[in-house]
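Pasting two entries for a bug report.
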Amino acid sequence: MALIKTIRGKTPVFGKDCYLAETATVIGDVIMGDHCSVWFNALVRGDVHYIRIGNRVNIQDGAVIHCTFETAPTTIGNNVSIAHKAIVHGCTIMDNVLIGIGATILDHAVIGSNSIIAANSLVLTGTIVEPNSIYAGIPAKKVKDIEPEQTAEMINKIANNYLMYAGWYK
């Protein structure tokens, strides 16, 4: 069973039909929407500020979601995939986004809707990622514009797959 921990008087709240792997950890001031999943060894730590997660969000194996004490909460929109070992810290991720394997998003960054952050990219503090774009590299820079239909296809495919995978484990 996942570790769900109350800290500073705050207990995580989960929407309907969420899946939490046995080694997932969710702590503190976290509110998660419906049909979300937190996978093996993933950590969602709302101990120093709040974390808000929309619907249909998958937080894959080894990912870390955190924030900065009193200055940078983390907000994640709907239909977001946060891939294996990604770090999402004190930032805002809008709807329909894919954060690639091993990518890092730092404080006060904003990831626009229908965007993809490539694997192992580093989105620096305060970066504004344009909607409908792909960013890659260290530091992450815009690689190209993409049509909303292209991102929707890729992002929806991954999000739908993770709903299916969660069904296997429930």
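Entry 2 (this is the one that rendered wrong in the viewer):
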Amino acid sequence: MKILFVHHSYSAKSHSGEDVIVRKQINLMEKMGHEVVFFNPNSDNLFESKLQKLRTLFAWPLNLGLDLTKIIKKENPDVIFAHNLFPSISTKWIKSCNKPIFLWLHNYRNYCIASTFLRNGNHCQICIPKSSI
């Protein structure tokens, strides 16, 4: 089976718990004989200039991030494992994708930019209906 793993790492220099889990899953899938394609951008250069900061600021809420449609067509995976998409990977491709997609929810970032469901110290779910997923 061919598996496409999609995961935006916060930094190539330091690894988060999400990065560790993704690597363990990839190693396990390869050990089981599956072919793995890993799409893994990171945030290292997203904030180097004012223009990059501005683009990053607007990309997530406007769903203008990286589109995986070309990668999916080129690689033709049997299944897609999506972990962290924030902040550079768009979710537009999800609705038109005809492949099974497993979305690992490591945090609430896809539904709440603060990832906490809190606003001014109170429970908040205002953004959930506006989510791009």
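Dev reply: Rendering is fixed now. As a check, the viewer should reflect this: The chain has a mean pLDDT of 87.
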